[in-house]
Amino acid sequence: MKAPSKTTELRELIKDARWGIWLFVGLNLLVLIFFLLDGIYNEIVFVLLFIQILLFVVWFLPVFCYQVFYKKLRVKLAIYKALASYKEAVSHFSW
Predict the structure, then answer these.
(1) Taking the model in full, what pTM does it have?
(2) How many folded domains does the chain comprise?
(3) d(Cα 38, Cα 57) in Å, to the nearest integer?
(4) pLDDT at 3 over 70
(5) Residue 95 maps to a domain
């Protein structure tokens, strides 16, 4: 069995990162729709905003810092890895 090349791994990483970005775009559109319908005091808007802040602080920021400070990766590659790790986490979640 042949090991995947670095370019194949990078393409897969970028594809997973784009998936994570689209997931955030969809979540932000959902928040915007509920905000326009009912305002900031809607419970769904509050919960979705809280989830976004929590995901950024608890998930993306630590993964990004680990990639940059401990693994010594470039910032762009660390952002891709953080977004791709979110795709991996969501894939284990059962809807």
Answers:
(1) 0.71
(2) 1
(3) 27
(4) no
(5) no
